[in-house]
Amino acid sequence: MPDRAHLTFALTLHDAVAPDRTRNACWSPYSVASALGMTAQAARGETEAELVALLGTDHDKVIKGAVVGDDAVFAVANTLWASDALPLNEGFLTDLAGWPGAKARSAPFVEDPEGARKIINEDVAETTNQLIPELLGAGSITVETVATLVNALYLKCAWTEEFPEHDTADLPFRGAGNVPTMRREGNMRYARRAGWEAVALPARGGVEAVVLLPEGDLGGTEGVPEVLEALDRDRIELFLPKLDLSVNASLGDALRQVGVRTMFTGEADLTGLSPDPRLRVDDVIHEAVLRLDEQGFEGAAATAVLMRMTSFVPAEPARTVRVDRPYLLLVRHGETGAIFFFAQVVKP
């Protein structure tokens, strides 16, 4: 059963990440929760409490339980990059080994910050099938950087039933003119409740994409948990725009808004990672790419936590759902509810 706390985390952070409902947004709750989850294992005291309050008590179980089937392409890496000069706690390295795709690597942060940046970017690019070639921009790694916790994710899934390409046509989308829009009729899960219409499109690997279409303008996310819980099988004629989104952003301010503040200050306690008490988080950098077409979807995401010193019964006829105005899109693991991608689509 999908985890409610993980959904709450995603909705809460989305409101802070994408407060402007007139702009496209795309991010990966799975990736961010992974990077912050590793950070929480490094944290102690108030630093840890703030992270757990946002993520939920069992956040790591949701992420680790989101196993994608072999009929989809899924790659994930959770990496600690650390300076050779930074003493590490063996207990943290043991805990890190429990995360999917875990590894610990050294990087020359002090001696060659630009070289360290390139090494990390190359590793992320490899995991994400080159969809994210440069997560960390120039200047993001400095001589004061001593460690970086990085999650990188790649997911490619085919729909269990494809959209016929000959049915794709340019149709109007509010605020964006005519856009390439796909059409498919079939059995899907559907609900209408609490100001939302929701349609869940099954994909390979135990993954699904859920379209969340508001009754009016795109506003707050109130009612989303209720409509997701009400999803039931129906016969649907769905009109859905093709999609290609890419967003890179700092999440520092958004995290502070939702109560994760101490790790960015001199009061940070990251002694679960290293006995050095001066360690704190400088920034959290995130990038997500999501492409959706007639065959399925492909997405990648990466999150870096930069540390420095202080320093988811057929009915007739089919119900028609036209996604012709701004909407939300979740790509999630069917069983656990782990949200791989969360998109706010204003201009497809």
Automatic annotation (TrEMBL):
SUPFAM superfamilies: Serpins. Belongs to the serpin family. Residues 9-348 form the Serpin domain. InterPro entries: Serpin_dom, Serpin_fam, Serpin_sf, Serpin_sf_1, Serpin_sf_2. It comes from the Bacteria. SMART domains: SERPIN. This is Serpin B. Pfam families: Serpin. One of its GO terms (molecular function) is serine-type endopeptidase inhibitor activity. One of its GO terms (cellular component) is extracellular space.
